[in-house]
Write a structure and sequence with these properties.
Chain lengths: ~110, ~120
């Protein structure tokens, strides 16, 4: 069956360090993968999209990698700040051709000052 | 920007009543809108996909007669939870796709529904 797995335990790091979150998937051949940020009681906010033929994408302090052989994406936040504390969701297009997204459960990131 | 609004942001209702939730794209035309449901500490679960002017496509296990979706215009979709029961209590989130940008979804702030 198809699965998207993100670390279920919260990731606690200190301000200024780099946070690395993992998204693994099985039985998918996604055309692209996306990362979203979700704050408590709010809808997700789009951060980055990476296509299957791209290895890495950057946006300010964010970096995403996509390894279709390992079926894994890594999401990095450099120079992390307490304001980065949130739940981060990975989502992928299941390849059905209907532009729908399947989401992982998300990993909560806590950045302490 | 791409702003999506939802109304109401929260609603409490009695069991057996119907509740309508609106989703609007404020500064763009949305050819496709999606409705999700999210339970605490769970992922977003897609309920249905709707395209303007056509019937919604429901995901497996979602009752179309219970969750009525109307995508009346390029900026408005509504979800009506009919005869709501306590198990329908959840966080309902809509998203919209911009015309010509068929990959990124822009999400609304969500609607918290509590059925007593």
């Amino acid at each position: 069956s198809q699965k998207i797995e993100q670390n279920s335990e919260a990731l606690n790091i200190q301000e200024g360090k780099t946070a690395t979150l993992t998204c693994n998937y099985t039985n998918y051949s996604p055309a692209y993968l996306q990362w979203y940020r979700q704050d408590p009681g709010r809808g997700p906010v789009f951060l980055l999209l990476i296509r299957e033929n791209e290895k890495e994408k950057r946006k300010e302090r964010l970096k995403v990698t996509f390894d279709t052989t390992l079926k894994q994406s890594l999401f990095h936040i450099t120079a992390s700040q307490p304001a980065d504390s949130a739940t981060y969701l990975c989502a992928l297009d299941p390849g059905s051709g209907y532009s729908t997204l399947t989401f992982g459960k998300g990993t909560m990131l806590l950045v302490s000052p | 920007g791409a702003v999506v609004s939802q109304h109401p942001s929260w609603v409490i209702c009695k069991s057996g009543t119907s509740v309508k939730i609106e989703c609007r794209s404020l500064d763009f035309q949305a050819t496709t809108m999606f409705w999700y449901r999210q339970f605490p500490k769970q992922s977003l679960m897609l309920m249905a996909t709707s395209n303007e002017g056509s019937k919604a496509t429901y995901e497996q296990g979602v009752e179309k007669d219970k969750f009525l979706i109307n995508h009346a215009s390029l900026t408005l979709s509504t979800l009506t939870v009919t005869s709501a029961h306590p198990e329908d209590s959840s966080f309902y989130i809509c998203s919209a796709m911009k015309r010509g940008y068929q990959e990124t979804q822009y999400f609304g702030p969500g609607t918290r529904l509590l059925v007593l």
